[in-house]
Amino acid sequence: KEMIQRFEVEKSSDFPRFHLAEGDDMPDGEVLPSDVKKAQSMAGALLWLSTRTRPDIAMAVATACRWCTKNALKSIEVSNAIMQYVHGNQGGLHYPRGVSAETWGKRNQLKIERSGKLLEVFSDISFGAGSKHRSLQGLLVFFAGVPIGWQSSQQAFVTHSTAESELVGYCEALNVGRSMEAMICAMIKEQVGTNAIERVIYGDNAAAISMAHGTGTSSWRTRHLRVRSSYLKEALDGTAPGGLWRLLHLR
């Protein structure tokens, strides 16, 4: 509410209404310092909100942050659209006592029943949608059936296909999952890597999942993707330090 009042947002919307184009990272005119300052101020306020209670705005906020100095006016436009959405949809996260009654998900879509010791990482990408055709990726971490962490970012390099981009996302999901597990184990006084916590990564790209398990065929011309596949396979085989992980397809 303080943010809405500070930036004098009066309109409301059902979702962040902004449009992206390939040339948005290259503004037509001069980038003014005053616009950059305003863009950074708006994006910073939204970033504080998104990292604490609003995973629903994470992707849009990442876009606003990415353009603060490159295209300040576009960043302000995106931030304003997000604030109008927040104005019309105030709230946050609400956690049940214990595991939610929907142990298989709201649509019974999950492959593993949720329990008090289940760590889930959901990973997905938007292929080539970022600046210079880099993909956008999103991660959402659940423990005992509730969200405890989320991330939206642009991948560091351009990938050749959706499968390659998803594979990069699954590697990031594994790293994030391991970090979250270490924090959880410290809180519940369990040893990391002892399989006291059940771990699963969900993705929707069958080709990338097959390659990660070492069962798919590949004509990759770049070695770094085969290395990423092997990195995942060790975790899926349980031979890597840190315990056994599963990577399952979720439509």
Structure characterization notes:
Helix content is 40%, strand content 14%. The protein is α/β, with parallel strands linked by helices and 251 residues long. The protein has a 5-stranded mixed β-sheet. α5 crosses α6 (206-212). The radius of gyration is 20 Å and the shape is globular. The two termini are 37 Å apart. The model has no long low-confidence stretch (mean pLDDT 91).
Notable traits:
5-stranded mixed sheet; globular; alpha/beta
Q: Could you state the order of secondary-structure elements as H and E?
A: HHHHEEEHEHHE
Percent of residues in helices comes to 25-40%
Q: How many helices does DSSP assign? A: 7
- Average pLDDT number: 91
Strand order of the largest sheet: 3-2-1-4-5
Overall morphology: globular
Number of strands: 5
- Which residues form runs of ≥5 with pLDDT under 50? none
Largest sheet: 5 strands, mixed
Category by helix and strand content: alpha/beta
* Straight-line N-to-C gap: 37 Å
| Radius of gyration over all CA atoms, rounded | 20 Å
Tell me the β content: 5-15%
